[in-house]
């Protein structure tokens, strides 16, 4: 069997079968986590990195297929095997058509289960060499799952659209995908589509012939040509003028580029990665972004979480960034005090990782002692307070505060809290899972 260190999540409302299956798989060397129902499983998936889910089909509140649908939405690419004592050909066909990796009937044949687990892990396993993502510091299950998806998609040449708020590290992820791809030995070239006026952006992308416009005193190679054989990263693609969107679509369709002022097309071999902080679906509805271009760019979509969504990474990132900054400026600065680190963890971070970088650079610059204290962190955060959160950030923070207040008021009684919120219990549990809240922590 392969990948014995893999962590499996077993979901079954029969505690006896759950224990027995867990013991068998543990004896084979796997790490095992268990859940008695779908809601508990989703909550656990928010907290831990899981490589494979093995779930019963028939369960109260949320059956195996409903759980699979939630997993597919929250953790795309995570393989799921479904077990059932009520097996039938229609059930199996329905499950596999929806993307379930395997469908096995109870009592489960041990060899068939082990074979299905091996195949699922082999299908989803990321490469063991992590050099491609060395610039991404994380232990967050959300980020680790995202990196597994990035590593898998890097092996093909499909276009990838990276979504995420400003400062979450979209270009860093794009560089990692390039480094993991077959194009790694060729150029990676990035351009911010919102940073240049239309004519200059067009010239940068496609190049120009001599005399194409005033000031074009010589022929110039465009970025599509410069990235030949490699990857072109179009950052803030949502800011690209519509006239250029048409020309970009033509390049992607025909795999040819025509420099400004030229009558000849040039063949290109370039992989396209793009990124945006905008809601391109809404932009399409408002006719501000071309639908045909969107589907060309968005063959695979990856969403980078905000820093608050991966708050467990803050101590790790802070220590890493402190070490880098101290090496450049003040080698005697070595750590944060406990109170200072607690303050960093409690921050809202509307500017995400980029804001954290700025705060730590300022702390190091102003520190006169080896240990950075809470006051310096407070001072640095005050300097960053002018960063205005996006609507999505503000709504997310409101939701989190609202849910915490409800659980405090009801002392962790989910039924009562859901009633006050005007939601059914299943919907309310999903909200809690999304914000990584555990009602048990609010009980007296």
Automatic annotation (TrEMBL):
Recorded hits in CDD domains, A to Z, give: AAA (cd00009)
The residue ranges of the Response regulatory domain are 7-121
Q: List UniProt keywords, sorted A-Z.
A: ATP-binding, DNA-binding, Nucleotide-binding, Phosphoprotein, Transcription, Transcription regulation, Two-component regulatory system
Q: Which InterPro entries match?
A: AAA+_ATPase (IPR003593), AAA_lid_NorR (IPR058031), CheY-like_superfamily (IPR011006), Homeodomain-like_sf (IPR009057), P-loop_NTPase (IPR027417), Sig_transdc_resp-reg_receiver (IPR001789), Sigma_54_int (IPR002078), Sigma_54_int_dom_ATP-bd_1 (IPR025662)
Q: Name one Pfam family in it.
A: Response_reg
Please give a single GO biological process term from the UniProt record: phosphorelay signal transduction system
> Which sequence positions carry the modification called 4-aspartylphosphate?
56
Q: Which domain of life is it from?
A: Bacteria
**Domain Sigma-54 factor interaction per the UniProt entry, residue ranges:** 136-365
Extract the SUPFAM superfamilies matched here. Answer: CheY-like, Homeodomain-like, P-loop containing nucleoside triphosphate hydrolases
List each coiled-coil range.
none
Q: Which NCBIfam families match?
A: PRK15115.1
According to UniProt, the name of this protein is Two-component system, NtrC family, response regulator GlrR
């Amino acid at each position: 069997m392969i990948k014995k260190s893999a962590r499996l999540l077993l979901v079954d409302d029969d505690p006896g079968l759950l224990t027995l299956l867990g013991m068998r798989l543990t004896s084979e060397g796997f790490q095992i986590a268990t859940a008695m129902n779908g809601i508990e499983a989703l909550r656990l998936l928010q907290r831990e990195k899981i490589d494979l889910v093995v779930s019963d089909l028939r369960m109260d509140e949320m059956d195996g297929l409903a759980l699979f649908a939630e997993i597919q939405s929250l953790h795309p690419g995570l393989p799921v095997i479904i077990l059932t004592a009520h097996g039938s050909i229609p059930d199996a066909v329905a499950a596999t058509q929806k993307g379930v990796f395997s469908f096995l009937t109870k009592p489960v044949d041990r060899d068939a289960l082990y074979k299905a687990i091996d195949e699922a892990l082999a299908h989803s396993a990321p490469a063991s060499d992590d050099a491609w993502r060395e610039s991404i510091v994380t232990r967050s299950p959300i980020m680790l799952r995202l990196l597994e998806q990035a590593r898998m998609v890097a092996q093909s040449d499909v276009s990838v659209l990276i979504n995420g708020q400003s400062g979450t590290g979209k270009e860093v992820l794009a560089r990692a995908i390039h480094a993991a791809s077959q194009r790694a030995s060729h150029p990676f070239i990035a351009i911010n589509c919102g940073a240049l006026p239309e004519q200059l952006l067009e010239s940068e992308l496609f190049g120009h012939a001599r005399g194409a416009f005033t000031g074009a005193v010589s022929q110039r190679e465009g970025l599509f040509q410069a990235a030949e054989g490699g990857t072109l990263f179009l950052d803030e693609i949502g800011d690209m003028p519509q006239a250029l969107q048409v020309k970009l679509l033509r390049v992607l369709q025909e795999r040819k580029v025509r420099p400004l002022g030229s009558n000849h097309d040039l063949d290109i071999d370039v992989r396209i990665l793009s990124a945006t902080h905008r809601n391109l679906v809404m932009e399409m509805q408002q006719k501000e972004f071309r639908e045909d271009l969107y589907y060309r760019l968005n063959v695979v979509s990856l969403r980078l979480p905000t820093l608050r969504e991966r708050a467990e990474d803050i101590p790790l990132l802070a220590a890493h960034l402190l070490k880098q900054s101290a090496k450049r400026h003040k080698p005697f600065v070595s750590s944060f005090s406990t109170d200072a680190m607690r303050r960093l963890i409690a921050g809202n971070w509307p500017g995400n990782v980029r804001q954290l970088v700025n705060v730590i650079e300022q702390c190091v610059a102003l520190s006169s002692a080896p240990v950075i204290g809470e006051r310096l962190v407070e001072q640095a955060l005050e300097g960053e307070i002018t960063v205005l959160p996006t609507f999505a950030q503000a709504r997310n923070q409101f939701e989190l505060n609202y849910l915490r207040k409800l659980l405090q008021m009801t002392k962790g009684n989910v039924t009562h809290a859901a009633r006050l919120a005007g939601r059914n219990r299943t919907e309310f549990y999903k909200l809690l899972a999304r914000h990584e809240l555990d009602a048990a922590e609010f009980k007296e």
